[in-house]
Amino acid sequence: MIDPEEAPFLLSKLEQLCGSLGVCVRYEGLGDGEGLPAAESGLCRLRQDRILFVDARLSPADRCRVLAGELRRFDLSAVFLHPALRRLLDGPDKDAVW
Predict the structure, then answer these.
(1) Dist CA 92 CA 98 (whole Å)
(2) Is the pTM of this model over 0.70?
(3) Mind listing the pLDDT tens digit for each residue in 53-98?
(4) Cα–Cα distance between 16 and 80 in angstroms, integer?
(5) Domain total of the chain
(6) Cα–Cα distance measured from residue 76 to residue 79, given in angstroms and rounded to the nearest whole number
(7) Which residues pair with 39 in a beta bridge?
(8) What is the distance, to the nearest Å, from the Cα of residue 17 to the centroid of all Cα atoms in its chain?
(9) In a domain, 2, yes or no
(10) Rounded to an integer, what distance in angstroms lies between the CA atom of residue 97 and that of residue 65?
């Protein structure tokens, strides 16, 4: 569970981590609300670029969950992470499906 008060800080750190890994984070309205199916947030590759699309309508805590879920795919064992970020990425919810 992500504390809503801590979410903006964690989100900032997750975005910085994405940048250092060469992942571009884009906040987009996924789905138009007019009957078209909504796309889910997630990481994709466009040519040589890795782009993490995140639904702009998500709360900061839910944005953290999406970013953390995608970042868990990377080997971060040799990367220095703020302790709160390390807890989030290695914590008990690390295998949860968001």
Answers:
(1) 13
(2) yes
(3) 999 888 999 999 999 999 999 999 899 999 999 999 987 655 454 4
(4) 12
(5) 1
(6) 5
(7) none
(8) 10
(9) no
(10) 9
